[in-house]
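Minutes, structural biology subgroup

Action item carried over from last meeting: produce the structure token record for YjiS-like domain-containing protein (Belnapia rosea). EB confirmed the sequence was re-checked against the source entry. Recorded below for completeness.
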Amino acid sequence: MQSVLRTPALALPASLTRRPLRVRAMAWLRLGLARRRERQYLAEMEPRMLRDIGIGPHDAHREARKLWWEV
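Output recorded by EB:
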């Protein structure tokens, strides 16, 4: 039998795990929207800027195509 450990795609900080569901849901959505925004910025970067941060154009394109809840 094979065992696989997985971490949640959008893990919340431990301080939020004891909060009411609506608070956790809003935090999860904010985190997802922030990730989406960062990926949009990444997609808009010029190749020179990508090289400065050590990412190739192919990697940037692949990351930018991910959905907001994907890690």
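Discussion: Confidence is low (pLDDT under 50) at residues 1-7.
Next step: EB to file the record with the rest of the batch.
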